[in-house]
Amino acid sequence: MKLDIDFVRSQFDQLNDNPEFVFASNAGGSYVCNQANQVLEHYNRHTRVQPYSRFSPSADAGAAMDRAHQGWAAALNIDPDELTIGPSTSMNTYVMAQAIGDLWMPGDEIIVTNQDHEANSGVWRRKAYEKGATIRQWEVEPDSGLLDIESLLPLLRDNTRWVFFTHCSNIVGTANPVAEITSAIKANSSARVFVDAVAYAPHHVSDLKALAVDAYAFSLYKVFGPHQGLMYVNRDIHGDLTSQAHYFNSGIPTKDFNPAGPQHAQVAGCAGVLDYFDALHRHHFGDSDGSRNSRLDDIHRLILQHENELAEPILDFLNNRPELRLLGKSHTRDNDRAPTIAFRPLEQSAESLTHSLQDSGIGTEHGNFYAHRLITDLGIDPDDGVVRLSLVHYGNQDDVNRILQALERALG
Ligand SMILES: Cc1ncc(COP(=O)(O)O)c(C=O)c1O
């Protein structure tokens, strides 16, 4: 069975309203599915009052927020108490740096990478520095930008407290084997694991118990939904973290790591993404009694195959051009390559190539995409950076053809 791309595209009005250009900046933020817009609109029109009281719009507002919270917990195969819905991943990691790092002291060690977006790097480094803890860096292979588990193992010590890494870099687009890495970390240390999945979740919503990580964060505005950050924190470690909530809310798991308070309509709107996934599943597989997470797995198989078909011709093209340096894997055959494709032009600036592509109707961008350390360590000027073409499952072969033609035109 193949993904019915026409059905997929019919669920995104924004796609159909903007046919004149190919949206190839999805890693910066995706289009919002119609279902999420419907939930948001309904919330704002009918239930926009302080939620969780007994009068009807308020009760409905609370129920709409609970539906999103419980639905996403089920999607991730976690307990609702383990899910925080905060303003963004950067804000969630900032808060977690206080919750996790307040207890660090000299002698403690943490491991961060130079592959991550700064949201999963700077906050931990700053906190460790403040507390006198040692920061070790798990470094990418300097040509490809890929991380190798073999170079992580020697960094682990008895006093390593946390390891922070990404499920998938927003530049090299290649997924790190999180379950394998986490199990190696646990086998060799007592360290805990925090994973940034912002660049991975748009392609696959994971079963977090299967990954066995301690904490995991991603942003729903890149997963076809409202601008919210979803974060899992394993219940077993809540007691070891300092609550960041008002003192009278301390100990309430969904408040402990969200001092901002919930953004009511946006939280409710998160359920719309699950409504979209349900519609996608029903369209392809009919009615199902499977768990939410297993339904997402079914969809993921279709999405993976489709995304591989989108990425492969672009990777092939780029890899065969000597005037370009392609980052990450040059193929999708390992099924771990998201269609987030970054490359460095060697004979012109990333800016000028990006402008040419934009002039040909490709909505793409260039820069360091806040993976400043990675771009710098790959020997690339972080201001000009790389050109990034990022697609998700609603892209089609016509988009790919238009991208290839635009590249031909821009490169001559
Ligand atoms: C890989 C990655 N991590 C973290 C973030 C930060 O997410 P947010 O914008 O929700 O703070 C981004 C944003 O682009 C990202 O691409």
Structure commentary:
It is a single chain. This protein is an alpha/beta fold. The protein has helices spanning 5-10, 13-17, 34-46, 56-75, 89-101, 122-131, 178-188, 208-211, 235-238, 253-256, 264-285, 292-319, 350-359, 372-377, 397-411, and strands spanning 22-23, 83-86, 109-113, 134-138, 160-166, 192-196, 215-219, 229-233, 324-326, 340-345, 362-363, 365-367, 386-390. The chain folds into two domains: 5-31 and 292-411, Aspartate Aminotransferase, domain 1, CATH 3.90.1150.10; 40-272, Type I PLP-dependent aspartate aminotransferase-like (Major domain) (Aspartate Aminotransferase, domain 2, 3-Layer(aba) Sandwich), CATH 3.40.640.10. Helices cover 42% and strands 14% of the residues. A seven-stranded mixed β-sheet has the order 2-8-7-6-5-3-4, with helices on both faces. A four-stranded antiparallel β-sheet has the order 9-10-13-12, with helices on one face. Strand 3 (109-113), helix 6 (122-131) and strand 4 form a beta-alpha-beta unit. It starts with a helix and ends with a helix. The model has no long low-confidence stretch (mean pLDDT 97).
